[in-house]
Amino acid sequence: MAAKNLATCIFCKIIKGEIPSYKLLETELSFSFLDIGPVSKGHALVIPKYHAQKMHELPDEYLADAMPIAKKIAIAQGAEDYNILQNNGRLAHQEVDHVHFHVIPKPSKERGLG
Length: 114
Ligand code: 5GP
Ligand code: ZN
Known about the structure:
- This protein is of the alpha+beta class.
- It has helices spanning about 5-10, 10-15, 60-75; strands at about 25, 30-35, 45-50, 80-85, 100-105.
- It has one domain (about 5-110): 2-Layer Sandwich (HIT family, subunit A), CATH 3.30.428.
- The protein is built from three helices and five strands, in the order ααβββαββ.
- The chain has a five-stranded antiparallel beta sheet, covered by helices on one side.
- A hairpin with a 3-residue loop joins β1 and β2.
- The structure holds guanosine-5'-monophosphate and zinc ion (ZN).
- Zinc ion binds near residues 11 and 98.
- One of its GO terms (biological process) is nucleotide metabolic process.
- This is HIT-like domain-containing protein.
- It comes from Mycena belliarum.
- GO terms for molecular function: catalytic activity.
């Protein structure tokens, strides 16, 4: 990723505290926070603390750090059903060029059961 993009990356700024966020869990490698435009209550994002654009740029050890966080958030949100989503590149609807995993709880009413 070009240095220019790194300097302007909103998620890098969130990690550094330059842009406020509602932080959830944090590890040495990962940061997680609530999405500013949630598609459901509790919609969260898990990101690496270093800049990378797409998932294939991440080492396997990062994925081993991120997935348990996504799992913990999904459990903590209390939704029986949920999505873990991850977009890579414009054609795949990636809008923020800092790799991120969406954790999207599906409250029962969204399944027509509430
Ligand atoms: P993408 O389409 O790239 O997979 O998703 C990017 C996500 O980042 C969107 O769901 C959007 O609401 C979220 N987002 C964009 N800017 C900010 C921000 O400044 N703060 C937070 N918390 N989320 C953001
Ligand atoms: Zn970044």
